[in-house]
């Protein structure tokens, strides 16, 4: 399984995922492995997908083979249509090639794309059924083969005013959301968090040291959260004591 989360901040877009991939050995035995899940296309597109790894590879190849049609000087409406035009035939071909034999699973793929266009940054999703849309309001999107995990990621950030936060703040929100999903899951998704950002200046894929720094800030955030809750919680009177500290008379 996979969980992908993208956020729009005041300074750029953040794309974050978990790292766990699953392969099948002969006999259908699943094997866990760490898998790079964030891809770049040229200097203006980031994407991460959910579903069959082979389809994701074909998606990247199709995009890279058509870089001239994905020029960041084009408006986002044109870029969105072009990305979908390149990806959707791959989805359809996988569907048409599926043979419904016992224990077989149809290959599917869907993804979230973050990119630069002439009229600003765009956050776009192509879902597993081939539909597509931009995500402007609310300014975030999530997907994953475990749909409940994607909803968990969204619910953990939706009360924050993400669109008006700094890029670093959005990265911390995304990091903690993906981390929470991985900690909540018994199987299917796993740490470490992967992350990349895109601004009008270009793409930056966060390195191990950068991700460790963000993890340390998130851990400090958790500590402060506990301290804040403790300071705000009202004191609870011990049973049998009134507000003035006098014991209550037992009923006759």
Offer a few descriptive terms.
5 helices; five-stranded antiparallel beta sheet; 252 residues; alpha+beta; 34% helix
Label the structural class.
alpha+beta
Mean pLDDT: 89
Look up the CATH topology: Glutamine Phosphoribosylpyrophosphate, subunit 1, domain 1
| C-alpha-based Rg, rounded | 23 Å
Main β-sheet, in a few words? 5 strands, antiparallel
Number of domains: 1
Q: Which sequence of strands runs across the widest sheet?
A: 10-1-2-11-12
| Proportion of residues in helical segments | 25-40%
Strand tally is 12
The DSSP helix count reads 5
CATH architecture verdict: 4-Layer Sandwich
Low-confidence stretches are none
Q: Assign an overall shape.
A: globular
CATH superfamily: Aminohydrolase, N-terminal nucleophile (Ntn) domain
Gap from first CA to last CA: 63 Å
- Per CATH, the class reads Alpha Beta
Q: What order do the SSEs take from the amino end to the carboxyl end, as H and E? A: EEEEEEHHEEEEHHEEH
Q: Strand content of the residues, in percent?
A: 25-35%
């Amino acid at each position: 399984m996979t969980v992908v989360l993208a956020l729009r901040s005041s300074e750029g877009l953040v794309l974050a995922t978990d790292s766990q991939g699953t392969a099948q050995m002969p006999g259908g035995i699943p094997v866990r492995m760490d898998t790079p899940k964030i891809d770049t296309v040229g200097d203006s597109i980031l994407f991460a997908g959910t579903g069959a790894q082979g389809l994701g590879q074909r998606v990247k190849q199709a995009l890279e083979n058509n870089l001239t049609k994905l020029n960041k000087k084009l408006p986002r409406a044109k870029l969105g249509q072009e990305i979908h035009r390149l990806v959707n035939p791959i989805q359809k071909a996988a569907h048409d090639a599926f043979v419904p034999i016992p224990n077989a699973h149809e290959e599917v793929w869907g993804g979230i794309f973050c990119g630069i266009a002439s009229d600003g940054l765009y956050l776009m999703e192509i879902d597993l059924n081939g539909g597509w849309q931009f995500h402007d309001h609310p300014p975030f999107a999530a997907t994953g083969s475990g749909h409940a995990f994607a909803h968990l990621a969204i619910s953990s950030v939706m009360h924050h005013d993400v669109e008006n936060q700094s890029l670093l703040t959005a990265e911390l929100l995304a990091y903690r959301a993906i981390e929470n999903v991985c900690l909540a899951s018994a199987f299917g998704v796993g740490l470490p968090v992967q992350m990349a950002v895109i601004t009008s200046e270009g793409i930056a894929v966060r390195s191990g040291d950068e991700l460790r720094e963000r993890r340390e800030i998130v851990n400090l955030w958790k500590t402060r959260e506990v301290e804040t809750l403790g300071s705000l919680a009202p004191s609870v009177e011990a049973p049998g004591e009134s507000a003035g500290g006098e014991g209550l008379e037992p009923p006759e």
